[in-house]
Amino acid sequence: MKPFLFFILTALGAVPGFADEIVRVKATGDVTQTMNALEAAVTGAGATVFARVDHAGGAASVDMELPPSELLVFGNPKLGTPAMIDDPLAGLFLPLKVLVYEDADGVWLAYEAPAEMLDDLNISDDATYLSVMAGALDKLTAKAAGG
Questions:
Q1: Per-residue model confidence as pLDDT tens for the chain (147 residues)
Q2: Contacts by residues 101-107 (CB-CB < 8 Å, ≥ 24 positions apart)
Q3: 22-27 and 48-54: which strand pairing?
Q4: Residue 48 lies in a domain
Q5: 59 lies in a domain?
Q6: How many CB atoms lie within 10 A of CB 101?
Q7: Domain region containing 73
Q8: 81: burial class by Cβ within 10 Å (0-12, 13-18, 19+)?
Q9: What CATH number is given to the structural domain containing 35?
Q10: How many CA atoms lie within 13 A of 75 on its CB side?
């Protein structure tokens, strides 16, 4: 019975940690406007944009349909390097990524919480860069959301 209860609570987001892995922020603009605003916020904050991936465009290139969806890959060596010093495997998760996508409920910005993203690595839960990354993602997505 306990495994079943754990499954139900997890599915409902009642178990701490599971509901907090992916942070979603509702946007006021369309995907392109929101992604442009996010990219401007990232560069304005002094971070480097490494890639902008158009998932819907990729789907269209193989004659498939996907609602508008773009991924921004960006980072700042001042934040990412300490994580990779603590555990080189952090390089599998960094640079940071934010997805801007449209679903039936509107346009969203989504990202994985840094503490959760790096949780399985040899990184202290109280590493300063985790809260700095989380704060940066919060500010950048709020600015891009236009709300």
A1: 444 333 333 344 443 444 469 999 999 999 999 999 999 999 999 999 999 999 999 999 999 999 999 999 999 999 999 999 999 999 999 999 999 999 999 999 999 999 999 999 999 999 999 999 999 999 999 999 996
A2: 101/31, 101/55, 101/67, 101/68, 101/69, 101/70, 102/30, 102/31, 102/67, 102/68, 102/69, 103/67, 106/26, 106/27, 107/26, 107/27, 107/28, 107/29, 107/30, 107/31, 107/34, 107/68
A3: unpaired
A4: yes
A5: yes
A6: 22
A7: 19-145
A8: middle
A9: 3.30.310.70
A10: 20
The per-residue pLDDT for 20 is 60
For residue 124, what pLDDT is reported?
95
The amino acid occupying position 66 is L
Is residue 42 within 8 A of residue 49, CB to CB? The reply is: yes
**Rounded to whole angstroms, how far apart are CA atoms 15 and 96?**
25
Number of domains in the chain: 1
Beta bridge partners of 23: 111
